[in-house]
Amino acid sequence: MLWLNVDNDFFIALCYNHYMVKFDNDWDEILAGEFEKDYYQNLREFLKKEYFTKTVYPGMYDIFNAMKMTPYSSVKAVILGQDPYHQPGEAHGLCFSVKRGVRVPPSLRNIYKELHSDLGIYPPDHGCLEDWAANGVLLLNAVLTVRRGEPNSHRGKGWEIFTDRVISLLAQREEPMVFILWGRNAREKKGLISGSRHLILEGAHPSPFSANNGFFGGRYFSRANDFLKEPIDWRIT
């Protein structure tokens, strides 16, 4: 019965020794060879077992949506989250984002409040941030998978090595970009962002537990646009 919870074609591909992740954009070249490294091979073995025996989010085809939707050369800003939402129907591969029709989570409601305070943009009636991804905002979690109802359950399994590599590669890019780091876990990645050509914006996590202690009033969206040659359209339709 457990097999019925897993996409057969994807699971077969995941088990195949030479399975390679495909982004269908310039990330394929940028990350060439990354998925052959020992840490990722170990992570893949862990994920095979997890997806086969547990309920894991997001769905297998959505794990890399952040990078599939925002090519390396198109990144204007990076927003870094911790790990995916861990309740049914929420996670779809973009940090802080949920699928349409799902209740907007408290952290995202606070992000919307700050967006309105900063730029006067009224929030949509949903929590899907795909418009941001399409407009050059890489919505990347530090850990890309999680067990249902168990936050941080895939922490320390190898995803951090992968996403640290992604952040480092972005930091090496000549074209300046903005790194938006909310909360302690995100701010710990600051050391990966070398050079002075990029802008780093830091603040408290937008969670209701911390938003009043340094998140609100950060003006992250306008400050990002003031820095960039081509401003980001932060509107969400």
Would you kindly provide a written description of the structure presented here, covering whatever features stand out?
- The protein is of the alpha/beta class.
- It is 32% helix and 10% strand.
Features:
single chain, 237 residues, alpha/beta, four-stranded parallel sheet, two-stranded antiparallel ribbon, globular, disordered N terminus
As a whole number of angstroms, the C-alpha radius of gyration is 17 Å
Number of helical elements = 9
Q: Assign an overall shape.
A: globular
Portion of residues in beta strands equals 5-15%
Strand elements, count: 6
User: Low-confidence spans: pLDDT under 50, at least 5 residues?
Assistant: 1-6
Strand order of the largest sheet: 3-2-5-6
Distance between the termini: 40 Å
Structural class: alpha/beta
Order of helices and strands: HHHEHEHHEEHEHEH
So what's the oligomer here?
Answer: single chain
Describe the sheet with the most strands: 4 strands, parallel
As a percent range, the share of helical residues equals 25-40%
Average predicted local confidence, pLDDT? 92
Topology:
Elements lengths: L7 H8 L11 H4 L7 H16 L2 E2 L7 H5 L7 E5 L24 H14 L10 H5 L2 E5 L4 E2 L11 H13 L6 E5 L1 H4 L11 E5 L16 H8 L10
Parallel strand pairs: 2-3, 2-5, 5-6
Antiparallel strand pairs: 1-4
